[in-house]
Specification:
mainly beta
């Protein structure tokens, strides 16, 4: 007997980050509700981004907040990248790149001036 898939799903907006740094709108992506149900107004505050061969589920800041060890997605020097927050000191964030090779300090209020897409909620190979 086949098990019926009864998982509730919702449509979430999808985008693709092209090699030239531009963002292209994709069709909405059917997403398990359990991934986004705790985010206020998730249909407007959560997005899928396809970056090369990875799919990244990203939530807006705010309403989400960022803490140490969170991963954020933003554009630096014309390239999109994932950055991990190592720690928050006063109003400064200490970030490292996805490979852990470089560290940088950013004032928390400057995140809004950067091309910040949001807090990474999930990374996977396919949706």
């Amino acid at each position: 007997m086949l098990k019926e898939n009864t998982e509730l799903k919702v449509n979430i907006k999808g985008f693709e980050v092209l090699d030239n740094g531009e963002i292209k709108y994709l069709e909405d992506i059917l997403t398990p509700l359990i991934l986004v149900e705790n985010i206020p107004n998730y249909k407007e505050n959560v997005f899928w981004y396809k970056i090369r061969n990875l799919w990244v589920l990203v939530g807006k800041i705010p309403p989400l907040t960022i803490e140490s060890n969170d991963v954020i997605l933003f554009k630096e020097k014309g390239k999109w990248g994932l950055f991990k927050i190592l720690e928050k000191k006063d109003s400064m964030l200490i970030l490292t790149d996805g490979k852990g090779l470089r560290k940088t300090k950013v004032k928390e209020e400057n995140l809004t001036e950067l091309n910040l897409l949001g807090k990474v909620l999930r990374v996977q190979n396919k949706v």
